């Protein structure tokens, strides 16, 4: 494994970490085996979230007796100080620890930033937890390039987590700025939400980007950990053959993959279009049907609410057939 420093947090992390979403689909015994595999490969960074149902809890149990060998990160969608303080305590309890190295304000949209960084907002709770020794550092996660760009201006932000992979490079400019400001950049969705099968190639692509600090593929078994980690054995520049493979992946996913850029908003019917695509993706590629379904059903508007106005398609820079895709999503979720 190769190690690096996660921006101004100063944390010394493996360049590949564990994305904790798939832990939801295994059991406590398999989670222990997953932790064994991480140790075997030298991976020392684990990321989970309050929203990943049993993920924190299973990881906490599997980490008993070896917690100090890992850097733990989690995150919460809480936007108020009181809710965030409660979530930090829940994460500590689930992880069976008295400190979490990195706590992130999860999935901040452009319109939520001011609220989250207000004196009674979620960031204040993380800062208070840092002073109390419960949390080491404050980070954020986002899916919209506009939100990411704005968040880089907040002094408190030590790390950012954002989608970056062979087909999603909408953060390129923000990555450069993050690098200049010594803010750690964590690539989420390195396999484009399960749409890229070759983990080694996906990791080599990401780890060849000098402004990206590390990647956190979602992994649930030793074979996946080994495949993704194998990329680190050879971080030489991408070969011509790999460039051809990358071009083929881009072509395959060109008008068939939502980059979550948010340019299609606002939807006339109030549908969160990228969120619908993301949940459909989790259902189809992650074997997390129940979780994806419950998240999807909790949305205020669903694919069935689309009135077919087509405004979103005019705005989508990737010319995705959004209306057609929403019809498919309606079928798989039933509404
Ligand atoms: S076509 Fe459907 S999804 Fe697109 S903006 Fe109109 S109502 Fe929203
Ligand atoms: S549907 Fe198009 S515009 Fe909307 S988030 Fe996805 S890629 Fe971006």
- Class derived from helix and strand content: alpha/beta
Low-confidence stretches: none
Distance between the termini: 45 Å
Give the helices and strands as they follow along the chain.
Answer: EEEHEHEHEHHEHEHEHEHHHHHH
- Beta-strand segment tally: 10
Q: What is the second-level CATH architecture of the largest domain? A: Alpha-Beta Barrel
Global mean pLDDT: 95
Counting structural domains, the number is 2
Total number of helical segments?
Answer: 14
Strand order of the largest sheet: 3-4-5-6-7-8-9-10
Q: How many whole angstroms does the radius of gyration measure?
A: 19 Å
Query: What percent of residues are in strands?
Result: 5-15%
Name the ligand types: iron/sulfur cluster
CATH topological fold name of the largest domain = TIM Barrel
* Helix fraction bin: 40-55%
CATH superfamily name of the largest domain? NADP-dependent oxidoreductase domain
Supply the CATH class of the largest domain.
Alpha Beta
Shape: globular
User: What can be said about the biggest beta sheet?
Assistant: 8 strands, parallel
Task: Explain how this protein is built.
The protein is of the alpha/beta class. It folds into 2 domains: 3-244, NADP-dependent oxidoreductase domain (TIM Barrel), CATH 3.20.20.100; 273-333, no CATH class. The chain contains 14 helices and 10 strands. The protein has an 8-stranded parallel beta sheet with strand order 3-4-5-6-7-8-9-10. Strands 1-2 form a two-stranded antiparallel ribbon. Helix 1 packs parallel to helix 9 (222-230) and helix 2 runs parallel beside helix 3. The model has no long low-confidence stretch (mean pLDDT 95). The structure holds iron/sulfur cluster (2 copies). One iron/sulfur cluster (SF4) binds at residues 258-264, 273-274, 316, 318, 320, 322.
């Amino acid at each position: 494994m190769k190690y690096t420093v996660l921006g101004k947090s100063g944390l010394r992390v493996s360049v590949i970490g564990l994305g904790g979403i798939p832990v939801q689909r295994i059991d406590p015994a398999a989670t222990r085996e997953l932790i064994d595999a991480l140790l075997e490969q030298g991976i020392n960074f684990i990321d989970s979230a309050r929203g990943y149902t049993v993920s924190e809890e299973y990881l906490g149990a599997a980490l008993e007796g070896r917690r100090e060998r890992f850097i733990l990160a989690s995150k919460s969608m809480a936007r108020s100080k009181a809710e965030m303080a409660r979530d930090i305590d829940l994460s500590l309890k689930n992880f069976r620890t008295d400190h979490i190295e990195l706590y992130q304000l999860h999935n901040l949209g452009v319109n939520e930033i001011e609220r989250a960084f207000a004196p009674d907002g979620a960031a204040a709770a993380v800062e208070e937890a840092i002073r109390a020794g419960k949390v080491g550092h404050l980070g954020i996660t986002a899916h919209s390039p506009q939100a990411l760009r704005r968040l880089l201006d907040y002094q408190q932000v030590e790390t950012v987590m954002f989608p970056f992979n062979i087909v999603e490079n909408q953060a390129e400019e923000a990555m450069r700025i993050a690098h200049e400001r010594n803010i750690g950049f964590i690539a989420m969705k390195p396999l484009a939400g399960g749409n890229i099968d070759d983990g080694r190639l996906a990791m080599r692509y990401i780890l060849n980007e000098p402004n990206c600090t590390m990647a956190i593929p979602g992994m649930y078994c030793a074979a996946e950990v080994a495949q993704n980690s194998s990329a680190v054995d050879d971080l030489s520049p991408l070969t011509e053959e790999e460039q051809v493979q990358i071009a083929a992946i881009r072509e395959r996913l060109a008008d068939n993959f939502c980059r979550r850029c948010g340019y299609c908003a606002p939807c006339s019917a109030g549908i969160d279009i990228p969120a619908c695509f993301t949940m459909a993706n989790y259902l189809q590629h992650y074997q997390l049907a129940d979780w994806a379904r419950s998240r999807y059903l909790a949305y205020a508007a669903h694919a069935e609410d689309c009135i077919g106005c087509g405004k979103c398609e005019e705005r989508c820079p990737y010319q995705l057939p959004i209306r057609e895709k929403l019809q498919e999503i309606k079928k798989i979720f039933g509404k």
